[in-house]
Amino acid sequence: MMYKYKEDISKNIFRGYDIRGVYPKEIDEDTAYTIGLGFGSHVRGLGKKSCVVGHDNRLSSESLYKALITGIMETGVDVVSLGLCTTPMYYYACIKLDIPSGVMVTASHNPKDDNGFKFAFDESGNCKGQEIQDFLDEIIAHDFVSGKGNVSSYDIEPDYIELFKNNLHFGSRRLKVVIDPGNGTTSIIAKKLYELFPMDLVVINGESDGRFPNHHPDPCVESNLEQLKEKVLELKADLGIGFDGDGDRLGVVTNSARFLATDYYMIVIIRDIINKVSKKEFLYDVKCSKAIEDEIKRLGGKGVCYRTGNSYTKAAVKDMDLPFGGELSGHVFFRDRWPGFDSGLYAGLRLVELLSHTDKSLDDLLVGIPKYYSTPELKFEASDNIKFKIIDKVLNYAKEKKYSYLDIDGVKVLFDDSWALVRASNTGPNITAKIKKKTEDRLEEIKDEFVSYIDKCIMEMK
Question: Which of 319, 349, 365 is the last residue of a domain?
């Protein structure tokens, strides 16, 4: 198939952590080909001669993948083709082959009609922030190198399975576990991986289907886990685990079908590993509850509050040489005995492994964790042109009110036993807000204060 350079490539698809947009309205095969030309030219300029490319199971992914590879090869860069794989499988292929440059065709947990590209130029990891905007400028400049690259296929699955087998060590307790791939890309390997370990396994929505016919593939939205909850209760299972569209995130429900937010999952893990690691320092993002900060301090460790975004989190956990870190969206990064990339399947198995060494239920392990009340994530439509200006206004408002605040990612206003977080989405034209408090009183009052101010700012800037 012939592809052509995309003269009118959409600037809005170049976002904070990756490239993402609606197929074929914003991203089509010519877009993928053009990105391939830009990517290949950039890595050639860094002295790289090869890259790794994979794709998820979305209906548009394979055709975008072929166009992308064509563009990359036309710059003289060799491509190692993984074909259909999860994003964590792609990450491990880059590690195993010692090829840090690569592209994964995926839109992660976005709706089925979206698609996109996660990419890394070199050893520094996934591109993010200004790197992505600079890459857009390079593409618009149309200054591409030419050459004739080759493509070779590589099956990462055997190596990936071996990594799991060598990494996990189960105890004597055999658990009943329900997993829900949500018809996403983990469907191609989840059952095979989990059956390697001693458990009674039940799989729901386990057929690979890029239309995601049963529910949206975002396991950190509780409403997407209703089928999983029902099955856990029906079977009296010990826990349920859901995965997102490309496999780098997880969501968990307990034995009583209670939704386990990722920050509470992280507390369970930190409680388990804190006396097994030398560096007792753990990273969490600004969206996480104060409960994780309180618990790390109680355990004698040090917490690091960081900005949201899996590319930022992954890089920070590595750069700070931390044993574990994560963010509320379901990305968690183990570095105690795992090579540091986010895998929902591995994160789920670590929890099953932990439970196999105790007679306590998952609900039992949550006893003693402080409870914080929270609003759901509140979304406000705000174009990419104004959303960061609105955050600046919220920051000035906090200063005028003499509130304590953090501004590492949006504005997090800190009260004695609560916080209000307002930030610009890096994946869409939205402002998001969330309020958490140790008691329910005044939660609505704080919410109303910030919601009315955000609404006022949006109206003034329209």
Answer: 365
